[in-house]
Amino acid sequence: EQIKHxxxxxxxxxxxxxxxxxxxxxxxxxxxxxxxxxxxxWVASASGASFIPSGTCSSATKSRTSSRSTRSFLYLPDxxxxxxxxxxxxxxxxxxxLVNNGKMGRVSMVGSGPGDPELLTxxxxxxxxxxxxxxxxxxxxxxxxxxxxxxxxxxxxxxPGCADKAQQEIYDWCREGLMDGKHVVRLKIGDPFVFGRxxxxxxxxxxxxxxxxxxxxxxxxxxxxxLGGIPVTHRGISNQxxxxxxxxxxxxxxxLIQYHKEQTVVFLMAVGRLRELCDNLCNLANYPRxxxxxxxxxxxxxxxxxxxxxxxxxxxxxxxxxIKPPSxxxxxxxxxxxxxxxxxxxxxxxxxxxxxxxxxxxxxxxxSD
Length: 369
Known about the structure:
With 369 residues, this protein is an alpha/beta fold.
C-alpha cells in the first residue's frame, strides 16, 4: 500500500526453508508516495537459498503507480552473501526486478515506420498481431497500423507540455504488464533508436530486470523525403545528410550545423516550431533565405501531403494548409532536384502544396496570430 513516510519494511517468509539456513527475511526501504508490488520467490542455488523480490500483486492492490525507486536489501545465507547471485555483502541492486515467480513478462520494442502498414518489417507485423500482447503505442503511430494490432492497445497521449508525465505512464503500463507475465510490445513511430527515446527506454527496462528485443523500423528521416519525391543525396547537389530533432531536452532548441551548399538537413518533430527553426537557420547557421525547404506530412499514409517553399515562405505555407505532426522537414537543394527539374529561374520554382502548387513569386499572406 502507499506510505506517507520513509519506512523500513521487514518481509519474512511464512514458509520455512527446507535447508539448514535460517535467513528468511529481507528489508525494503521505501520513500513517501511509493507503492510496493511484491511477492517472494525462493531461488535455490549451490550456496543455499535467497529471496527474489517480484512483481506479483493481487487484483485488490494492483495499481499503475511506479515502484521503480524501491530499494531492496537481501538477507542471504552467509555463503551466498559472499558474492553469489549478483549480490555483494547481502545487498542487491537499487532497482527491484519484476520476477513473477518464474513467470516474468517480456518486452519487444518495435519500430512502426512512417505510417504505411506495408512498410512494416515482417518481424514487426508478426509481433503486433500477437493476440496475447499488451501493446503500448506512441500517439503518432498511424491508425492503419493500430488497426492491425490484435491484443490490448494503450496509447500514450504524449502532448506538448506533458511529455514527461506521459512517458512515466508508459513505464507504469509496461511494469504492470511485466508483473502480469505478459508480452509487452512498446510500439514506436519510425525507428526506435532515431529520436524516439529508444535508448532511454532500454535502460529503464533493464532497471525492471528485462532486456527488450528491439525490432528496427523504417525511419521517417529517409522514408518521408523519398515518399515526397525528394532524394536526400544527389550527385553534384548533396553529398552529406544531417538528421536533427526540433526539440532538445526540456523543450530547448538544438544546436544547428552551419550552412554548406552540398548538405541536406532533415528535421524530425520540428513542425511545431517551424518559423523559429527557419529564423535560426538563417540567423545562427548562415543559411540563405532562398534555401529550398519541403515538409512531408503523414508520410506513407493516405492523407500524405507535401508542401514546398524556402526559408522565407515555408512557415506561412504550413499554416495556410494546416500541416500537423507527424511531419518531416527537409532543408537543402535536393528539394528541387526532381520537383523542379529543368526550371531555369527562381521565379518559376514550384512552391506550396505539390498537387496545387503556386509560383514562388505569388505573395504568401502572413499568418495571423
